[in-house]
Q: What sequence folds into this?
């Protein structure tokens, strides 16, 4: 396949995304109170994006400058250029996604009021599709463009690593900062509004509601988009790097040249973009049916087309079907993880948590923790099986291809995830503008599906991040040229295990920092909402006007200030371990061995913590919603209050600390890969 096809396909995908955006913007955006509420949400989102972009720019200039001046080899300058391109591509994807989501939400509300469920589903899903297609397309434009221009350079993989590092930096800020923002607003709005004041969710009297709605977009659109974009790029680059180091006889066994193996990940993701577009069309065709069925058919349909296309592509290129089988492993693994996540965050475990609320808050907490712990087993065993089987088919290259296979249809996977906050916001706008029970019933139905798709998206993101990080760690080990990795050598064994324990600590430190950040930000938010209820005349009676901009500002400042430590931890750990161990030893490879152990320990810890936190949080959230539907006493019952507290603890679990683990391990892996020549 001609390498120029990949960036061209990316440009076509981007064009389709903007055509969808233009179609959405032509729809009525409401007027009066509806438009005023929607404008506040949009303005708050754009304020957050501007502040994040300024902070990202400062870090990017520093890191890009270090790459430019200190990276060894003739590719240092090209790598720093690729780094800036990665920052721009990920930032652009996040901005487009946020802009579209905050324009689609009100149009979904209007469609629900005027046209019914099918039309509202189409608007919300197409709003998410813009984000999905933009993420996939910008990845193809960036990586495909770099490969096309530098394909004759033996250091093409090293140059492309700069792009992945830029994407990781943006993901760190959007995902972690976005998680702190959204949960500070959500926890504050829920605890003071629902529990203390006894007013409904999304009540316009609550000063924190606008910040809460902004946070939904910040966390699950810009944050999740950058998270997936990072894994999407990292998996392809790691596989290209592994292919570049593969022995000639190993390539021959797969019926391909080394150059073909290096290009194959890009060819697969190019085909994956087409499959995603077909999946999006499937959802549109099925939108008259049940929303959950339409979204599931689109996702699984795109994956099946992608798997079939992988075997067809291998046949067309004349390479071994073992390559397509490795891709199949990743795609099937992603589906299994998604379905397991759906069960634990939307099935019987959720109803069990809700029932436990009849005996108080303590049993809600115990049940939720139990569900989160149990939910780790099958996804982790699935990842283990995926790694084992894909290695059997194509060695370490097969493991990289499994990660590419899991992320191949990222366009529709991200579309379905971004659909969630659009539907959630649509319900909030309907509630705040008092549109009536019929409209709210439709938006609540779409929102309920969105909660499940968001949980599935998080499970998928964790699995994809784990496989992508493993591929990056494998590429690091090859690139570091460790002279002696023999566990029979006591010094090597000791160093590896010391690194392993250091790595195991990092996810817990990251979890503590991010949970503490949400707690402190929520404390500030709660005091502000209480102050407004106390001091603004007639606010609770509905005659006063809440100062929602103040709450947005508190959440934004908290996000930008309290995410510095997680960023330093992710970027600084590989540097400290690698160079620190080299400084205290005469062996030239001891730092690389210690860092390998650190990465392995962090990888396992991050996957375990991410699955546990995300699934426990999702289960608590949906247990609260199950009670609100009228079960076990319904709203404002003692059971409901207990489940609200569970959801309040679960919110930073599933939307801040859990997702930040994906970013942590991928940032550590890509930083390690970039500094490998210096070790």
A:
């Amino acid at each position: 396949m001609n390498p120029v096809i990949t960036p061209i396909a990316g440009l076509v995908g981007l064009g389709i995304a903007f055509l969808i955006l233009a179609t959405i913007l032509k729809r009525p955006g409401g007027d009066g109170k509806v438009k005023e509420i929607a404008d506040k949400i949009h303005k708050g989102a754009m304020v957050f994006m501007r502040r994040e972009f300024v902070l990202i720019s400062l870090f990017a200039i520093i890191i890009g400058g270090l790459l430019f001046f200190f990276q060894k080899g003739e590719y240092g300058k090209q790598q720093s250029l690729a780094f800036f391109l990665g920052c721009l591509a990920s930032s652009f994807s996040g901005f487009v996604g946020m802009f579209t989501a905050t324009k689609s939400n009100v149009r979904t509300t209007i469609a629900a009021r005027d046209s019914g469920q099918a039309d509202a589903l189409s608007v919300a899903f197409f709003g998410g599709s813009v984000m999905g297609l933009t993420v996939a397309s910008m990845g193809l434009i960036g990586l495909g463009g770099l490969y096309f221009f530098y394909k004759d350079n033996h250091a093409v993989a090293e140059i492309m690593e700069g792009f992945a590092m830029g994407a990781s930096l943006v993901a760190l800020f959007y995902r972690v900062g976005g998680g702190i923002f959204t949960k500070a607003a959500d926890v504050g709005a829920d605890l003071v509004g629902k529990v203390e004041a006894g007013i409904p969710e999304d009540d316009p009297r609550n000063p924190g509601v606008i910040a809460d709605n902004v946070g939904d977009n910040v966390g699950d659109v810009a944050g999740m988009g950058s998270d997936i974009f990072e894994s999407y790029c990292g998996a392809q680059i790691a596989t290209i790097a592994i292919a570049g180091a593969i022995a000639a006889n190993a390539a021959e066994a797969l019926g391909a040249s080394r150059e073909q193996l290096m290009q194959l990940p890009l060819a697969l993701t190019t085909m994956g973009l087409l499959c995603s577009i077909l999946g999006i069309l499937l959802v549109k065709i099925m939108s008259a049916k049940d929303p959950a069925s339409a979204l599931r058919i689109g996702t699984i349909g795109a994956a099946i087309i992608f798997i079939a296309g992988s075997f067809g592509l291998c046949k067309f290129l004349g390479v071994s079907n073992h390559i397509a089988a490795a891709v199949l492993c990743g795609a099937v693994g992603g589906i299994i993880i998604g379905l397991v996540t759906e069960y634990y965050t939307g099935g019987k475990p959720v109803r069990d948590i809700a029932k436990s609320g009849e005996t108080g808050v303590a049993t809600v907490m115990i049940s939720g923790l139990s569900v989160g712990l149990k939910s780790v087993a099958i996804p982790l065993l699935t990842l283990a099986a995926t790694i084992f089987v894909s290695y059997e088919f194509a060695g370490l290259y097969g493991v990289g291809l499994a990660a590419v296979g899991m992320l191949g249809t990222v366009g529709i996977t991200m579309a379905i995830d971004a659909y969630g906050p659009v539907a959630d916001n649509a319900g909030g706008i309907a509630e705040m503008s008092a549109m009536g029970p019929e409209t709210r019933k439709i938006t609540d139905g779409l929102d309920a599906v969105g909660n499940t798709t968001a949980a599935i998206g998080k499970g998928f993101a964790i699995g994809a991040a784990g496989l992508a990080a493993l591929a990056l760690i494998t590429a690091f080990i090859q690139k570091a040229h460790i002279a002696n990795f023999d566990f029979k050598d006591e010094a090597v064994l000791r160093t590896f295990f010391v690194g392993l324990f250091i790595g195991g600590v990092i996810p817990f430190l990251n979890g503590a920092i991010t949970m503490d950040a949400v707690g402190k930000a929520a404390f500030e938010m709660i005091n502000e909402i209480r102050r407004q209820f106390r001091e603004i005349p007639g606010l609770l009676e509905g005659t006063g006007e809440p100062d929602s901009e103040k709450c947005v500002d508190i959440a934004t400042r908290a996000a930008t200030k309290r995410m510095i430590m997680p960023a330093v931890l992710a970027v600084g750990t590989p540097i400290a371990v690698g160079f620190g161990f080299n400084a205290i030893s005469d062996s030239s490879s001891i730092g690389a061995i210690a860092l390998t152990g650190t990465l392995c320990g962090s990888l396992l810890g991050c996957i375990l913590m991410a699955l546990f936190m995300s699934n426990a949080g999702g289960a608590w959230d949906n247990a609260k919603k199950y009670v609100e539907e009228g079960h076990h006493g319904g709203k404002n019952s003692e059971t409901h209050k207990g489940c609200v507290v569970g959801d309040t603890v679960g919110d930073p679990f599933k939307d801040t600390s859990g997702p930040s683990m994906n970013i942590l391990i991928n940032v550590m892996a890509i930083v390690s890969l970039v500094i490998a020549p210096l070790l």
Notes: The chain has one domain: 5-272+313-678. The two ends are 36 Å apart (CA to CA). The longest helix spans residues 490-535. The mean pLDDT is 85.
